[in-house]
Write a structure and sequence with these properties.
Elements lengths: L1 E6 L10 E7 L8 E3 L10 E5 L2 E5 L1 H12 L4 E4 H4 L5 H9 L1 H7 L2
Parallel strand pairs: 2-4, 3-6
Antiparallel strand pairs: 1-2, 1-6, 4-5
Length: 106
């Protein structure tokens, strides 16, 4: 299983980003894009909402997510958000699966 961010639609391109983070079977997952962490300066963080919680992301990642939403994409996998970075076992397991994740991604 992997976690996927489901993009909440918005009527305006400038509306704040809001997502749900849910577990999905990799091979039964809906179409999704995959992004490796978009690096940037920590001082340039922007907040998004994930499962009703405020989560800081870099400005670069925020821009990428805004573009994906504007293109009408429904789901996205981002290593920094979809892998529990605090759980070393999960992180190790998921990193080994990244090849399969990127093969499955659109």
């Amino acid at each position: 299983q992997i976690r996927l961010l489901t993009i909440h639609p918005s009527d305006e391109d400038t509306s704040p980003l809001s997502y749900s983070l849910d577990y999905k079977s990799l091979f039964k997952a809906p179409p999704f894009a995959a992004l490796l962490y978009c690096w940037g300066k920590l001082k340039d963080e922007v907040n998004i909402t994930v499962n009703s919680l405020t989560v800081p992301v870099t400005a670069n990642l925020y821009s990428a997510l805004m573009r994906l939403r504007a293109e009408g994409l429904k789901c996205v996998w981002v290593d920094a958000l979809c892998i529990n970075q605090q759980d070393k076992d999960e992180k190790s397991y998921q990193v080994k699966r990244m090849g399969a994740i990127f093969q499955k991604a659109d």
